[in-house]
Amino acid sequence: MFAKIKKSFYILSVLFFCLSSYAKKPKIAVVVKSLNNEFFKEMRNGVELYKTSHSEKVDVIFKGVQTETDHEGQLKIINELVKAKIDALVIAPVDSSKIVPTVLKLLNQNIIIVNMDNKIDDRALAKYKINIPFVGPSNFNGAKEVGAVLAQEKLKNGDKVAIIEGLSSSVNAKSRSEGFREAMREAQVNVVQVKSADWEEAKAYEVATQFLQEIDNLKAILCGNDTMAIGAIKAIEKMNFKEKVLVVGYDNIPSIKQYFKSKELFATVDQFPSLQATTSIDLALEAVNKKMKQSDLPNVLKTKTGVILKD
Fold first, then answer.
1. Which residues contact 167 (CB under 8 A, 6 or more apart)?
2. Fold of the domain spanning 22-136+273-302
3. Identical fold at 22-136+273-302 and 139-270?
């Protein structure tokens, strides 16, 4: 009888230990921008692989909105995740400034926050004296590097180029545009127009069409992401400027690769979305497991970029 009781107690102890371990498994949410953007689809693929290989250590939830400008939709997702008792949030915000009040609310609930891809506004962080680590590449350096290669290989002093920028309230959109500008300044190439297309192909098509109509002897269009680059390429083809106007993109999404076969796409920049996501999750997981304070987290974890040219 005693042996049976002892055995039953042992089984219950094991079950309790397993359930306790499961309950203590950290829950980390990754929330991004448009799931229609192939960049974030690539990021999701990386997160799914991470989930599979780390399933015993962490519960990872991946969410995103449907458009690049849906700030309210992103906030709704975050609020639902908070109700689900997440321990940490990895966020690629739609808007670099509007996300700040939500960030403050989560920090007050002791939820660890890691920022990736699109940096939260530095002025807001300084104003509220908060530290949100940023994981990602230098958008300025990546854009400057690809712009410099374009200028060296295809442009000459005094040539005209234009920039199609991402969402104007996005820090990485501005950083990429400034990187493009700096490369053109150093090469003495003229940036004659800069307009936003909100990261979207259809809007980029309209902006590029306007550039082609208004700017005589335009040599290149530098785009803040590949989705907009595709819109620009389609406008170039539609208006019979093929082989006359080059395009530079950013992100190296799968669907841009086919355009290397035509002469319009000169180059793009790979910023390795899966690496950004998994590095961010690793940092968040370490912070939760070690019970680190938000203020103890590193300010920046830089990830790599690479210029991609036609083979």
1. 68, 69, 94, 95, 173, 196, 198, 199
2. Rossmann fold (3.40.50)
3. yes
